[in-house]
Amino acid sequence: MAALWLKFRALPGFIVPLILGITLIFVPYMGLGYAVTRQVQLTILLALIVTGLNLSLGYAGELAMGQVAMYAGGAYTAGLMSKAGVTDIFLQLLAGAAVALLIGLISGIPGLRLGGWSLAMTSFFLILLIPDVLSIFKESTGGRNGMTVVPATILGAPLDPATYYILLCVVAILWFAVMRNIIVSRNGLALQVLKRSPVLASSMGISVFSMKLSAYALGAIPAGVAGVLFANLDGYISPEAFAFSFAMTVLAASIFGGSASVYGAAIGAAVLQFGLNQASNLGGWNIIITGAFLVFGGVVFTGGLAGLGTSLVKKIDNWAAEKTGTTKRVLTTDSTSAATVEVGYLTGAPLVVTDVSKAFGGNQALSNVSVDAQPGKVTAIIGPNGSGKTTLLNMISGFYKTDSGSISLDKDQIAGLSSFQVARSGVSRTFQTPHIPEKLTVLEAVEAGRIGSDRVSIAGAIFRTPKFRRVRGRDRMETERALALVGLTEQRDMEADALPLGQRRLLEVARALVANPRVLLLDETASGLDEDELEVLEALIRRLRNAGLTIVLVEHNFQLVLRLADSIYVLAQGKVMAHGTSEEIENNPRVKEEYLGIAAEVDVTSGESDV
Ligand code: ADP
Ligand code: MG
Questions:
Q1: Ligand 1 atom 27 nearest Cα
Q2: Which of 119, 256, 556, 585 has its CA 20 to 30 A from that of 70?
Q3: Which helix (H) or strand (E) segment is 528 a member of?
Q4: Ligand 1 pocket check: which of 199, 357, 358, 360 to mutate, most ligand atoms within 8 Å of Cβ?
Q5: Nearest CA residue ID for atom 25, ligand 1
Q6: Cα distance between residue 136 and residue 129, in whole Å
Q7: Which residue pairs, CB below 8 angstroms and at least 24 apart, start in 393-397?
Q8: Is the model's pLDDT at 388 over the cut of 60?
Q9: b/e 573-605 (16+ beta carbons within 10 angstroms → b)
């Protein structure tokens, strides 16, 4: 039994949904009757709309409810086209998708630019706008009375109900395939990172704005397509079908099915459609039932039915693994194998910070700080808590704007660039508090670091172009190598955010390395590491330095800094208090006194310093 399960699990993940999708095509021939077939049709339409919401809500983390407006856009496009004599269903589908996309862009750009809840507001507003827009163009849309849609044609022949049904199923299967390809690609990974930590995403070279916009606008396409198909279902459309309550149904289906899931849309749509159909027999209870689904879905299970399914599958996996004798071991960071992996050829670039100042209100966090970090060198920045070390890294990586001063990378100015642009120009970093998105495996969390390099378009991911496959192969290779470099190979399939602190820090180093950076910024990476991990880190930094990378090391472990650094900057209250080699800093009386807390000894031989 267990072995059979494992064999089944070894099949590609899309097999079961594909079989279910193909089975749908045969529903009308199963003798279930017209009523059931109609419910299935409405479920498919709802599922298409819900996938769009899932892309923005579940994946990009933006509550954006414009899908109903896009659905209406598609439906009226089909209606108006048929009125004008363009009855070809493929032309209507194309036009409907285009109109929906346009609605997505028009509402998405200002909504996302303003940030916060603006997109939710603008998209809700869109829905309220539908009846008004339709009555303004009453002449052609029929306003409140709705309009009849001339039956469509397919390849010149009339689109009869049987063909219509097959078309609907095929469109849905194709769209779910597109969704799945996006989600399993690095774009899907980028969305998952973005949703959980926009800061992390931008530090990896992802533009938060364009990624969210892509997700929202892409989600318009299935809604527009569903609209066209809906218009051709009954041959009649009216504003009633696109009411606010329908938007709530879409939201409830998304949450109930599991918004961060590809197939959750189909599950949620089925539950809501069949559930509401039962409810409407009771009369007038629709919105209340929808609300109940929303509350229940939101409170009882956060991942929706799809989430429940996934955790059930995981449980069975564990059970099967136990039965077949795959036992768990305690995994430690492997320092011996880490040392044997090639670091590869790294080209560092000089990073020069000149006279940078930064104040937060009245708090002068940095004043005229200059730091010169060269390729093939470890440049350490030390100083007491609150002296401005992290702020300096944040200025370099573009999270904060400088008040004055300049920052150059290989002679290009990077001060003033957005953080994702700085990342793309070759600056990778780790964080003082590791940013590890939940629910990703170690492998995925590290692989996410590749998103900013070797970029492939979403179209590449959808159609799995040769370039996409090539890049994907490289992603995997680089990720495995980086994992080996930090000694985390054995942890690759574990949940990343469940790792102990030391391993999470090493994971961040691996994630920074897969981007093939020119400059690596490490913020207190050694704190929380055990001895083995420290050994791995120290040896790795040495090897990266020798390979030619520019390394900026912010660190509290003074002994580690003395061993590793080629040049040390001591910060105190936002100013560079001392700068020199390890030897010079170790013997600097002011550093001893103020930073290390050791009373300065009177030493006539090494009294000078370059403060
Ligand atoms: P370090 O990393 O050396 O411990 P930080 O760079 O984190 O120090 O902080 C330097 C100073 O800047 C502190 O006084 C801190 O409170 C302040 N600071 C840092 N970030 C912010 C922020 N986003 N807003 C306001 N003050 C900040
Ligand atoms: Mg700090």
A1: 360
A2: 256
A3: none
A4: 360
A5: 360
A6: 11
A7: 393/429, 393/521, 393/523, 393/552, 393/554, 395/353, 395/356, 395/358, 395/366, 396/351, 396/353, 396/422, 396/427, 396/521, 396/552, 397/203, 397/422, 397/423, 397/427, 397/429, 397/521
A8: yes
A9: ebbbbbbbebebbbbbbebbebbeeeeeeeeee
pTM: 0.86
Which bin fits 473, alpha (ψ -120 to 50), beta or left (φ > 0)? alpha
pLDDT in tens, 405-454: 999 999 899 999 999 999 999 999 999 999 999 889 999 999 999 988 88
Question: Which atom of ligand 1 is the closest one to the Cα of 523?
Answer: 2
Q: Give the residues across from 233 on adjacent strands.
A: none
Nearest to residue 475, comparing CAs of 55, 163, 189, 121? 189
Pocket of ligand 1 (CB under 6 A): 360, 363, 365, 383, 385-391
CA distances from 232 to 100, 229, 421 (A): 17, 5, 46
Domains recognised in the chain with CATH numbers: 2-314 (1.10.3470), 337-440+501-506+515-610 (3.40.50.300)
Residues 368, 571 contacting (CB under 8 angstroms): no
| Tens-digit pLDDT profile for residues 96-119 | 999 999 999 998 988 888 777 888
